[in-house]
Structure formats: structure tokens, C-alpha cells
Amino acid sequence: MLESEVNPTISKSTGLPRKRFYRARAHSNPLSDSHFPVPVSPRHVDYSLHYPHFFPLSDQVQNAKRVRFADVGCGFGGLLISLSTLFPETLMIGMELRDKVTEYVKERILALRVANPGQYQNISVVRTNSMKYIPNYFGKGQLLKMFFLFPDPHFKEKNHRRRVISPHLLDEYSYVLEVGGIIYTITDVEELGEWMKSCLENHPMFESLKDEELEADPVVKLLSTATEEGQKVARNGGQTFQAIYRRIAPPL
Amino acid sequence: MDDAPVEGVELNKDIEVAPALISVHPNQDSVAVAVGSDLRVFDLRGRCGVSLADESSGPFHKDSIRAIRYSANGKLFVSAGDDKLVKIWSTEAWHCLCSVVSEKRVSAVAISNDGLYACFADKFGVVWVVDLHGLDSNNSPVNKKAVPLLAHYCSIITSLEFSPEGRFLVSADRDFKIRVTVFPKNPLDGAHEIQSFCLGHTEFVSCLAFIHTVDYPQGFLVSGSGDSTVRLWDIVSGSLLDTCEVGTKTGPLECNGDEVGYSTVTDVCTIPDCSLVAVNIQSLQGVMLLSCDLSSRTLAFSMVVSFTGENFIPTSLSSSHSGELLWMITGVSKLHGSDHDSLARVRVLSGFKKSNCDSCHPELIVLGDNEVPGAEKLLEKLQGSVSIEGKVFSAAAEAVKRAMCNLLIKKQYPADNREFRKRTRNDKKIKQ
């Protein structure tokens, strides 16, 4: 592994990237017009770049597989990695605004693929502003699951419009979610938890899941345990607030 | 920071320049022009200028008007702009029926086909809706409150259009997107169901228009963009039907060496019953016509109509239901270094009905000043004067072009003076 000897950002022992070389501020301005490439439309997303194992040729149109799970604000990738082995045939993508953090997740996935042949081929990450460009990545009803784990609370009232869950943005999320698809949100900030729950409750295209359904879903437990943020909250003995809703057909 | 940061005072002044707008009544009862904050209307039936009446004293709009429009049935007229006011006028008595206050500057307006709701979009990407039920010419002006209908996250909305059958509201933004939303029975509760996104443009979308005929009542959407193309869409599926690269069809253009945005499409207008689309392109001294074949769903270049001897680059286009005339205007407000506060020039293109619409090249003529309906009286009322010096218009066209670029094209900030630009931030940790 000559590469890791020369490159100090990758740990020699595990082959995984070292977090301290990818440190970034926790908050990123979602209003800024950063210049990263944005696909013109969902058909223009290069799947061979993200999932070479499933899409070996660059312009393979035959393959009908599409991304079905999206982790919005995936951070350091903890959830994606846990979901990858739980749903090995499902393609998933993480979306992250911060440049360095996206690089970290990329390196992490590549390293995991090398260390575990055949595994982790179904996850990838993309640097993008999901509040502006989700319709560029996903077509109508494409997603089965969407995750919003520990989003930025934007405490000040004047900044509430920057929150990733808002009545207007839920229109777009309901557009990319299939009828029956599920949106998972969790936070350790009580006010934000209530805000997200109320936005979802008041939106005509979402209904809450019943307790039995939440019990039966293996993904629910991962929300608070799979991510670095979730583990930090657990370490500090904090409380978490979930809001998990299903996309329904619009009422007539 | 909601808006893009401005580098200096220079840039601010350029953004303030507002292009002149024109809109003609669906049955050609009247024609309205907006130049800066000035709204001018000419009654085509009575062949005389119209005096607008409003409860408020002083000018009706205190800042540049950015959008004007007649309702489909011709009974209402709406004007809105930088003064954050949306005014709804009755076209019979021409007095203001109601004024709606907007939180931000308004960039686009639309009235539902049944005339019951008015929608306006602001520069932060929110589309608002106002209930027009109960607006009566006899009542004194009402103050109505708008509610949010939908939003494009943090993007300037450049155009709003209702679909021909009123099922959908289409909104276009500066982030290359066109969103088609189902217009609900109760719009005051919000429009949450997105029908499709029409994605394909590679620069800001500047204008929208619908093309529809008796055989194709649902019609197709036509959009113009800063990427120098005009595209044809099926809004139900969001699919791109055809693209017309108008940038390559203009021939040599009048441009002063400024490459950015020189063939931006600034306005599109469909000529009813003719399947022709009139297109305004920045720097093109004339108007380009495209023909749309609705059965094969294609859009093709037809011809360019130029205005010989005049520096006429239209800033806005309009046609009525009869589709006989195409009304055009060029002009600008707040032009610096000029004696005039605002300038406008109206011209009319005729011959759409007479010509055989099946032929590729309809015989169109630019009407002379005394052939225009209303002739000199109209020109005096709408232009402010009968004749204007030609070279003032090149400066005007240049100013409008710069203003549009500054507003809609994303700035590329060089990396080298990034530290200088960040100097006002107060959250940086001091480096050791």
C-alpha cells in the first residue's frame, strides 16, 4: 500500500482516511452559490462514476437501477455505511455541502471497497446543495427513503428559512419520493424536532407512521446510532427527537 | 445575505436600470407600457390616452415596474415591481382595485385564467397568491393580503405562467430550472403537488410562453434562456421536446466586445393561431421568429425581422388573441449620463394573419409611425414623445444587458482576493 505511506491523510493501519485532515466547520452557508458541477437533469447523472461495479461502461443505458436512498447532509458517512450492508442491492447516495467532508466520505468509501471486496459498492457521495439541486439528481418518485439526520438547527428565527426541512422544500422532497416512500428525520434539538414534525404533519403529502410500523423498520434504530453525530449525542446522554413520515398520494 | 454581494456602487446603479415593458389587451382594447416607475395606457378603441386613478397620492408606483400583464379575459390588469407593491387595476374604468404589499421586490406576475387569483414572485424565490374574489369596480380599493403558494429555494424567479387550461402554474428561475406545479382548487392552502421539472437549460431561464391551438388545447411550453436557446417542453412529463439554438442563427450582432450574455434570450411571445414564436435576443436589432410544428413537436428557425435604419433592440413583446399584430417596445429607465430620465420606443409588426401561415416565411411588415393603431397619439402617450434620437438607444440596450447579466448570471469570484472579501466576517478564529 505505497499510497498510504506517502499520503498522511490515510491511516497506515486501517487504510481509512484520518478525520483530522478533513476537519471542517460544522455550519456551512446553504445560500452561497458555490461553484460545483450540477447535473443538468437526473438523466445526466453519471452512475458509472459513483457505482462502477454496477455500471461498468460509461454510457450503459440498459441498466434500470437507480439511486433509491438519499442521505441529505450525510456528514462523515456513518449512516450510508451502516445501510450499505443492510440493503446490499440498493443504490444509495449521500449529499453533503462541505467540500472537505465530501472528500473524506469519498476516501472512506474507496478504502472500504478495497478492504471488503464486493461490498460497499452501492454507496457513494456527491458534493452539492441539496436545498437547490435535488430535482437535478432525482426524477419524480425515484426515492424510497430520504434521511435528514441532525440537520443544522439555524436557531435564529430569521434563519429558519435556511432549515433543510421547511414547508416549501417538502414539496420538492415529496416530488422525488415514491408514494409509500419514507422520510426519516432526527435531531437532538427539541425545538427543531417540533418544527420538523409540525412541517411534516401539516403537509398534505405526508402522513406519520404508526408505532407498529416504526418498530418493524430496521432502519429506525440506525438513526440515533449509526452516525458520528448520533453517537456523540448518546455519549453526552442527550435526548433525540424523531419524525418519520410516509409520502402519500395527494388528497383529491 | 439574501442577494449576491455587490462589489461597489457601480454595480448597484447598473442593476437599477429597468427595461421597458409592453402588454396588449387580449382583444386589443388597449395597450399598456411600463417604463421605470411610469405606467402608461392607451385606449385603442377610443383612440386616446388613459388617465389612471388610484386612491394614493403621487405616482402609482414609486420604483421600477418589473412586470405587467392583462388577465386572460381582459378585465383586470396587474403591475408590480421594485417598490414591493402589486397593483390590480380594472381595465374598464382604469382605477386601482387593490394594492398588495410584498415583502421583497417583485420579479414576475401572473393571473389565473378565470381571473380569480393573482400570483406574484419575489426575488427570494417565493411565489405568492392573492384571492381576487369580490373585487368590484364599484367598491373602493381593498388592501388584500398575499399568502405563500410555493417556493424555489433562494432563487430569483424570472417568469410565471399559467397553462392554457389553467391546470398548472409554471415558474422559471435563475438556477436554470422550470417547475410545473398543479394549481389546486384552494390555492390559499399552498400548491404542494409538483407535476414535473423541465430541466435542460444551462443558464438562467428568462422567459416563458405557452403555444396552443384548437387541436392542441393543452399546448406546449416555450422557454428562453441565457444559454442562447429557446426550448419546447411537454409540461405534463417535463420532457424536452426540442431545442433551438438561436444564438447561432442571429448572424452578425451589434455587440460592444462584451461577450458575456450577448445572445441571451430576453423575451418570447407566441402569436396565436399561427404557431409562430417571436423571440427577443439581446444585441439583436430586430425580432427572431421561430415556427413550431405541434404535431411533430419541433421548433425551427423561421426568419429574422430587422428594423432598418433604427437601433431597435426590443426589450419586451406582446400580442393579442387575434394574433394580427406583434407589439414591441424598447426602452429603459434611470439611464445615467443621459438627458432623459426614461426612454421608450414602440413599434408594431403586422401581417401574421394575412400571410399563409403554412409557408416558411410569412410576409411581415414593420408598421410606420402613422400606420400604427392610434398613430401619433399612441406614440406620444406611450413613448413620452413622438421621436427620439437613435443613438440613445444603443446606450440603453447596453445598460439593460448589463443589468440582466449582473442580476441573473452567477458571479465567479477569483480565489486570490478571497481573504480581502472575507474581511468583514467576525467568526474566524485568529491563526497562531
TrEMBL record, chain A:
One Pfam family this chain carries? Methyltransf_4
Annotated active site: D152
State the reactions this protein catalyses.
Answer: guanosine(46) in tRNA + S-adenosyl-L-methionine = N(7)-methylguanosine(46) in tRNA + S-adenosyl-L-homocysteine
Gene Ontology MF term list: tRNA (guanine(46)-N7)-methyltransferase activity; tRNA binding
Database matches in PROSITE patterns: SAM_MT_TRMB (PS51625)
UniProt GO cellular component terms: nucleus; tRNA methyltransferase complex
Q: Which InterPro entries does this UniProt record tie to the protein?
A: SAM-dependent_MTases_sf (IPR029063), Trm8_euk (IPR025763), tRNA_(Gua-N-7)_MeTrfase_Trmb (IPR003358)
Q: Where in the cell is it found?
A: Nucleus
Q: What class of enzyme is it?
A: transferase
Q: Does the keyword NADP apply?
A: no
What does the record give as its pathway? tRNA modification; N(7)-methylguanine-tRNA biosynthesis
Q: What is its EC number?
A: 2.1.1.33
The organism's place on the tree of life at top rank: Eukaryota
Classify the main location: nucleus
The job of this chain, per UniProt, is described as:
Catalyzes the formation of N(7)-methylguanine at position 46 (m7G46) in tRNA.
Matching entries from PANTHER family are given as: 3-DEOXY-D-MANNO-OCTULOSONIC-ACID TRANSFERASE/TRNA GUANINE-N 7 - -METHYLTRANSFERASE, TRNA (GUANINE-N(7)-)-METHYLTRANSFERASE
The UniProt entry's sequence similarity note says: Belongs to the class I-like SAM-binding methyltransferase superfamily. TrmB family.
Mind telling me what this protein is named? tRNA (guanine-N(7)-)-methyltransferase
**Source organism per UniProt:** Rhizophora mucronata
TrEMBL record, chain B:
WD repeats by residue range: 61-92, 198-243
Which pathway does it serve?
tRNA modification; N(7)-methylguanine-tRNA biosynthesis
Citing just one GO molecular function, the answer is: methyltransferase activity
Which SUPFAM superfamilies does UniProt cross-reference here? WD40 repeat-like
Q: Which UniProt keywords apply?
A: Methyltransferase, Nucleus, Repeat, Transferase, tRNA processing, WD repeat
Q: Cellular component terms, GO, for this chain's entry?
A: cytosol; nucleus; tRNA methyltransferase complex
Q: Where on the tree of life does the source sit, at the highest rank?
A: Eukaryota
Q: Which residues form the signal peptide?
A: none
What the entry lists under InterPro entries is as follows:
Trm82, WD40/YVTN_repeat-like_dom_sf, WD40_repeat_CS, WD40_repeat_dom_sf, WD40_rpt
Q: Which PANTHER family did the record assign?
A: TRNA (GUANINE-N(7)-)-METHYLTRANSFERASE NON-CATALYTIC SUBUNIT WDR4, WD40 REPEAT PROTEIN 4
Q: What does this protein do?
A: Required for the formation of N(7)-methylguanine at position 46 (m7G46) in tRNA. In the complex, it is required to stabilize and induce conformational changes of the catalytic subunit.
Summarize the subunit comment: Forms a heterodimer with the catalytic subunit.
Q: Which family does it belong to?
A: Belongs to the WD repeat TRM82 family.
Q: What is this protein's record name?
A: tRNA (guanine-N(7)-)-methyltransferase non-catalytic subunit
